[in-house]
50S ribosomal protein L17
Amino acid sequence: MKKGIKKIKFSKGQDSREAVMRKLALNFIERGHVETTIPKARALKSLMDRLSYKSLRHQESDKNVLLKHLGDQQVVSKMFTLIGPAFKETTGGFVTMIKLGVRQGDNAEMARIQWTKPLISEPKPKLAAEKPLKVAKSQSSNITK
């Protein structure tokens, strides 16, 4: 029996809570910020602080923990290559929560989760310069009455 373990619970059950947290964490790592309700933001903040600390040490056991929580090898490698080196000097406080107010539709209190430091994001590939399309002259101007 596990005693003294406090989890932030939602009304849907354990499987649903884990799926929601995984999806929020993947979106957060991909974009660098997420806007959600305050209870979900608090749960995500604690999860991301724990996972970010794991990405600092870069050990095999840490990789297994990240794979367990995130479930994607590419995201785990991004955690080790991008997030780990960015927070090399810090030991905690990787994520911050900013309250945004209430959502207009259902009056739920919203919050924004973001990294405390701006991370150097991967450069987006430049698109090749597109040539302007030639506009064909309309035939109506040539028609005489």
